[in-house]
């Protein structure tokens, strides 16, 4: 069969491909601007030279100038026609600088270098199977903690807990809470501080975030928050909990099915399971216009799918889909599942789940 090529379509696609590669490169530059504090220095600053900006940031001018020029061609920062004075418009600073907490988009750019760091290992897995373990990801837990600091901690008391009717009163009175895949434990430590009569346990596979979580709890003087390093694939707890939470921590488990069943088994009959997880469809066709689709499938390939496969797991991936999530919750025995979306968190769905 003759294959006819439409030259206009071919040229259009080549153009958009170049644009994608350009934007990919900008993500790393944005990540650098975030980590070096350059966006914070530039937010609200009058037009300034690269030397002034370097001095204010405590960084080397030559690197700062090259970064500024990348930002200029990326239309993130403006420069005058002598290419001397650089300026970050306030409208851009709003989503780039830490001076505006809660709205920072730059922090998400850090995921690109994090996942790029394991590119070669993942290519090896494409050819040989298997997966890349958590231990290979340099800054994953650090970036994750920063992200959840914004999506979870910033909204925990005003938006997330109110999804569970009456939970505030119960937490004030004193209940037991388990957090699955707690990472660096920021959510649990905040809860522990606010509700001293309740007891909190966080479990995570990885040593580094668990140690960080314990250290923070100690620094905060908390005596009601505990962290335990364990593989949830085979977890059995004698205790029963009134509330179980999982923030972005079910889909990349080795065996989400077993973890959900174990949550069911350790939840009191009148208890609640709050599961925050990715808001997407299990069918890729339905995700064509997903605002984070390209980012999330990429994170899935280079992180969520492979870390699960590395543990001999199911490798459901980031985009396991709300349809599959609800099916698996039902299979675990939960009869009541409500889905909630919160305006501050366009990436996730909040499932409030109970036995009856
Ligand atoms: C995407 S992170 C979310 C972390 C944390 N809940 C947050 O919001 O910052 C998923 C967490 O699940 C943990 N995890 C993955 N597989 C696990 C397993 N088999 N057992 C226990 N924890 C696991 C990871 O170490 C990681 O901290």
From TrEMBL:
Residue ranges annotated for the Methyltransferase domain, each copy included: 172-332
Domain of life from the UniProt record: Bacteria
Pfam families: Methyltransf_31 (PF13847), WHD_Rv2258c (PF21320)
Domain S-adenosylmethionine-dependent methyltransferase Rv2258c-like winged HTH: 25-98
SUPFAM superfamilies: S-adenosyl-L-methionine-dependent methyltransferases, Winged helix' DNA-binding domain
Name the UniProt record assigns to this protein: Transcriptional regulator
